[in-house]
């Protein structure tokens, strides 16, 4: 068993640390976060971005803005101690730590459980509250007062207003902030240019360039209208966060240290069609061996591997290109038929089905065919929520987010039941064929030994 007790815990420096939250979704916190990350980067600071909750799309946007991999912090998918450990480990070499919250600050899977307010309290970092002021004026004062006093464990360091129409509008908002007993850090004016691309475009080169340009525009507004120095001063505190020692990862570490899992060859699909990946998952896989990234969309060969990981993404946007990768699909079939281990999530699972219909009335593109089911975007509806499973002696938690469905779900039975946060069984399947394990859920295994699935 290995004990994670980083030597930086013996030295506790001061550095700016904050979580950007909001009263509700749609308040502008993502835009402000992108602008702040890029503005700090342009000042020459190393900024570590985090994303509260299970969202893997926003995490990629933050990565682009900061030029540093964003890490998810989720108190349902991981234990509190693990969240603290991940926060400390990734923030160790950063000058500033910035986390973007999800939904409203206190919105969790049950009341405030799993919320970003819980994360801020757990990490003992202050919150900068972003308030949408497009249809608001002085009446924001009691709202701000409520957020300031609702939970003593959550400290609101200051407020940023978004969608502000004029300097006089901001003057009114600033008075409301003062009367609520909170620091006003500035505002972002209403701008038609500040629009995040559709979340269903994939992370193509064009979208990456668009996000980079958006971060630059947002950074310019942050520097002009936000008192960044004041924000950093108000949010400077001791690092690392309070920490429960020792932190032990009992699952997975012991097996890797025996040597029989060292230097495993792990092939990971990563391209515009497959890129929904939790950074901590990659780090855990890297502890088992060498990672090789490949592209099902643009590549032609499957790398030699002891495990092939096909993460989620948007294969429906690239169905025609994937359909043409006959050589790679045949290599995947040969690999799996010979007992090779494959772990596929959501979009990765869709690539393993017999066919993928990308739109209503559209062509059913032939896919790999390892799973005897067909996937379709016809009659698309959102399937969303946390999921839990126990299989092969391992317990995993994750998140489901997709619009596609299996055309005839009873064709291939699930090998284990999946449950939501309330413990109610859901219809989401987990498929297995030989050593191929696949399903719709994006799993988090930062504290688990994924290899046990094949023991």
**Main sheet: strands, sense, barrel:** 8 strands, mixed
Strand elements, count: 27
CATH second-level architecture of the largest domain: 3-Layer(aba) Sandwich
Output the radius of gyration: 23 Å
* Number of separate helices: 13
Please state roughly what percent of the residues sit in beta strands, choosing from under 5%, 5-15%, 15-25%, 25-35%, 35-45% or over 45%: 25-35%
Spell out the CATH superfamily of the largest domain.
P-loop containing nucleotide triphosphate hydrolases
What is the CATH topology of the largest domain? Rossmann fold
CATH top level class name of the largest domain: Alpha Beta
> What is the approximate shape?
elongated
State the secondary-structure class.
alpha/beta
- What distance separates the N and C termini? 19 Å
Helix content: 25-40%
Count of discrete domains: 2
Please mark out the parts with pLDDT under 50 across 5 or more consecutive residues, or reply none.
Answer: 1-9, 245-260
Mean pLDDT: 91
Structure write-up:
- By secondary structure, this protein is an alpha/beta fold.
- It folds into two domains: 12-238, P-loop containing nucleotide triphosphate hydrolases (Rossmann fold, 3-Layer(aba) Sandwich), CATH 3.40.50.300; 251-448, Rossmann fold, CATH 3.40.50.880.
- It is built from 13 helices and 27 strands.
- Strands 2, 3, 4, 5, 6, 7, 8 and 9 form an eight-stranded mixed beta sheet that branches.
- Strand 7, helix 6 and strand 8 form a beta-alpha-beta unit.
- Helix 5 crosses helix 6.
- The protein is elongated.
